[in-house]
Amino acid sequence: MKRILVLGCGNRFFGDDGFGPEVVDHFLKSHPVPEHTEILDAGTSVRNLLFDIILGEERPEKIVIIDAVDAGRNPGEVFELQLSEIPHKNLDNFCMHSLPTSNLLLELQQYCGVEVQVISAQVESIPDCVRPGLSPPMLRAVPEVCARIMDAIQPSARISHQ
Amino acid sequence: MGKKIVIQPVTRIEGHAKITIQLDDAGNVQDSFVNVIELRGFERFCIGKPVEELPRIVTSICGVCPWSHHLASAKATDAVFGVEIPPAGKKIRELCNSIAYTEEHILHFYFLGGGDFVMGPDADPSVRNVIGIAGKLPEVARKVVRCRWLGSQMLHIVSGKSIHPVTAVPGGFSKALTKEDLEKLKPMAQEILDLAKFSMDYAKKNVFPAYLDVVKTLGVITTGFLGTVKPDGTLDLYDGVLRMMTPDGKYEDFPYDKYTDYITEHIEPWSYLKFPYMKKAGSFSMDLARPSGIYRTNTLARLNVCDRISTPLAQAELEEFRKNFGRPAQLTLLYHWARLIELLYNAEKMTELLNDPEITSLDIRKAVTPRAARGVGCVEAPRGTLIHDYETDANGLVTNVNLIVGTTHNNAPINMSVKQAATSLIKEGKYDQGLLNTVEMAIRAYDPCLSCATHNLDGRYSVKIEIVDPDRHVIDTLVNF
């Protein structure tokens, strides 16, 4: 198990929802991946991965989640979601298709001692039927998120437990 | 004045659903509706693509059962190209199917549906989850996670990938198994078999007896069943014929590509999702007293339609199951019991396949040539019969696609079970948190997979109940955590 795990979450079939996997693709093409880091396109399978991590004997020290969200900001705006800042109730709707329990990320951090960093970008829109491809604002956000990932996975990156 | 109760979303099932319970003037259940968000537009998206690309594309439909879509799609492309794949290629596909099944069934029994039983249906929802179970049964949780990890490792050894598989291809499989692979895989399979045996024993001693009263009453409906069997009636999850069983236990077998002769679809104005039903019934009705055309898929259905199971431990469990509950068994919560028998079957099956000398043959794939054709591929996904139906032009480009997924087959039964549960639990407008949790239990028994693509941070609650008047004005709101 590597020290840091980066997971790109989302469904490529639904426009901006495919932001996480797109970031992973871009990162792997344009950035070196340090030995201590694993970066995965989790697609809509992140639930399976986190379930096993939360209960496993071996865990990474840090998990970085890359995901598109609708938080009422400007389309393409990149920001970090601090778990402690997100109202308890809101976590249920975070990454709904993937997270089966109400507060899995919070539990991972609080009970398992794994630092969880969530790097998000504001969606422009999510189509109501299959339509692959990111909106222009989200496409422009991809390099910025990759840069943030590089900062997050530096060997010297401090692992802080909130 | 009638009231409407809205429960949304149902936690711990994939995606989300909204449950609306309509009360009459006396406060009793008049009707109920389970609204599911459906993956829409996928068929149109596929038009014009080379059909050989579809087995790779469909794994992104849903991260919950990518192997089922991958294999159903590969089988549909085999049929489009008109090839019979080599035996070793088929056996490796079956091996992947069984490994993926064990991962999913373990997850569901212990952490999705199992939370209702392990922690109790009236337990605080904040502990009816993975952390609650791990705290109550730490040693079991350790075994469960170990076996799910083993399953993931096994799929990685067999196919090179576990999340987005690519190795089932038109005409067979693209990666042969070596004898060295087998030596790594066999002890892993044995460990999963040990957990399957433990789980069956543990549930029969500690879980099902404690909740038998609930099993006998909650969400109970009477329906037909659909599942896959070999031509001789033996359970098969990868290949065979479809068997449609009516509620009286009579059945008819038919090949996959004749499914439109046996299954047709009903549409309700309040649901995106269609309601498949038995064509030969001639009508569709979800009336609890006089249902018509309704059938179920998934674990309980498969065990009901099969005559026998080919592996000894699962066959013994099937015999005990039938002795206790008859054939067809109708009690909805028996889906959980049936799921464990299938877990045992798949664990035995993968051990059997790993000991088959033919599985290391290098003859695993046949060449294919594009042609204008129709091909139907079908597998039993953990959540029910999964049908992929493709048509291509002379260049092998897709001209038509139709998919029926397991949860869609169960759309009508899920609605009926929710109505049955709500009717028995909500009287004269009186209900409490435990009752509403129990309604959720009726849904979770079916292990539905509800596609969902949006993220919302709008402050909605995990489970929210709105009581509204006939003009849809909210007059009361409850949440369950």
Describe it for me?
- The complex is a heterodimer of chains A (162) and B (481).
- In chain A, 30% of the residues lie in helices and 20% in strands.
- With 162 residues, chain A is of the alpha/beta class.
- Chain A has a single domain, classed as HybD-like (Rossmann fold, 3-Layer(aba) Sandwich), CATH 3.40.50.1450.
- Chain A has a five-stranded mixed β-sheet, sandwiched between helices.
- Chain B has helices at 42-46, 54-57, 66-81, 87-112, 114-118, 130-136, 138-159, 179-207, 212-217, 259-262, 299-305, 312-325, 334-354, 406-409, 411-425, 433-444; strands at 4-8, 17-23, 29-36, 168-169, 172-173, 224-229, 241-245, 251-254, 263-266, 275-278, 295-296, 373-381, 384-392, 398-404, 464-468, 474-479.
- In chain B, strands 3-2-1-15-16 form a five-stranded antiparallel β-sheet, with helices on one face. In chain B, strands 8-7-6-11 form a four-stranded mixed β-sheet, with helices on one face.
- In chain B, a hairpin with an 8-residue loop joins strand 9 (263-266) and strand 10.
- Chain B is globular and about 65 Å long.
- The two termini of chain B are 28 Å apart.
- The chains are: A alpha/beta (162), B alpha+beta (481).
- At the A-B interface, strand 2, helix 2, strand 3 and helix 3 of A face helix 1, helix 4, helix 6 and helix 7 of B.
